[in-house]
Specification:
6 strands; Phenylalanine Hydroxylase; alpha/beta; binds phenylalanine; four-stranded mixed β-sheet; 295 residues; two-stranded parallel ribbon; 9% strand
């Protein structure tokens, strides 16, 4: 395993965020975070009302996900046994480590990019400790424990996807040096967060942003919408803008997780160089020769 070389101070990060969002405070308590932004989950501090809200979120998703989420996700989720309330990260972490060598670490909320990449590169997935409020049942701006744990952790039980996530982290550290972060972030968005996969039964979801959302689970597989469903091509994806405040206008579809792993294995340095000479593609682009995969 790699060791962590660099850290970012809380002060630097909070100052950056404050600048970015007109001084809006970050949600979450960063005071007890260590230099990697890791905190204790403090499971005992969740209230019964929070456990109840978790169960409702969980139930709602389970009414939608069979026949829509990929088998890899559903099989792992069932084994995680997290339907009864906000789960203990430590317990899942032990099973996850046994399966793929990944661990969960608890974080107060959003963390700096560098820290995020360092965690992934070392097979640690940061999961936010706090849960949304009942008013945010359908929509939440910042990732909470339901999105991070329910959406992301099951896929880390898949060995190929787990390796992809680690290499993504290493790729992020490299992209920071090459000025490639804007491009690489699009790949994360369109795969880890909003990815679809082709199966013999039809298209299925593996992206956490969809899997943890009420509305988009149905929308993304519904025939006849204006959104695109096209086969993933890495450079095309790196060039494509995305929407953060509406359902996606394009979903990139993979054949299998090996395609994702192999397609991202090449050195991205020449990709970044080429992309810097090009304009980004709007989120609803359909290029000549691209085929809509949802009839
Ligand atoms: N191969 C990419 C590079 O050289 C790194 C990467 C791997 C990015 C996996 C995303 C996913 O930069
Ligand atoms: Fe996410």
């Amino acid at each position: 395993m790699d060791t962590i070389a660099t850290t970012v101070s809380n002060e630097d990060f909070l100052a950056t965020v404050a600048e970015k969002s007109d001084g809006a405070a970050l949600r979450g308590n960063y005071e007890k975070a260590d230099e990697h932004y890791v905190v204790e989950q403090d499971w005992d501090s969740y209230t019964e009302a929070e456990h109840e809200l978790w169960r409702k979120l969980y139930q709602r998703q389970m009414e939608l996900l069979p026949g829509r989420a990929c088998d890899e996700f559903l099989d792992a989720l069932h084994k995680m046994d997290a339907s009864g309330g906000i789960p203990s990260f430590e317990r899942t972490s032990q099973d996850l480590f046994a399966a793929t060598g990944w661990r969960i670490v608890a974080v107060p909320g959003l963390i700096p990019e560098l820290t995020f990449f360092e965690h992934l590169a070392n097979r640690r997935f940061p999961v936010t400790v706090w849960l949304r409020t009942p008013e945010e049942f359908n929509y939440i701006v910042e990732p909470d424990v339901f999105h991070d744990y329910f959406g992301h952790v099951p896929m880390l039980f898949n060995p190929v996807f787990a390796d992809y996530m680690q290499l993504y982290g290493k790729g992020g550290l490299k992209a920071m040096k090459l000025g490639g972060l804007d491009y690489l972030a699009r790949l994360y968005w369109y795969t880890v967060e909003f990815g679809l996969i082709k199966t013999n039964q039809g298209l299925r979801i593996y992206g956490a942003g969809i899997l943890s959302s009420g509305g988009e689970v149905e929308y993304c597989l519904k025939p006849g919408t204006t959104s695109r469903h096209i086969r993933l091509d890495i450079e095309r994806c790196l060039q494509t803008l995305y929407k953060i405040d509406s359902f996606q206008e394009t979903y990139f579809v993979i054949d299998d997780f090996k395609q994702l792993f192999d397609g991202t294995a090449p050195d991205f340095t020449p990709y970044y160089e080429r992309l810097k000479q090009l304009d980004a593609l709007p989120a609803n682009t359909l290029l000549p020769g691209e085929v809509e995969l949802l009839p």
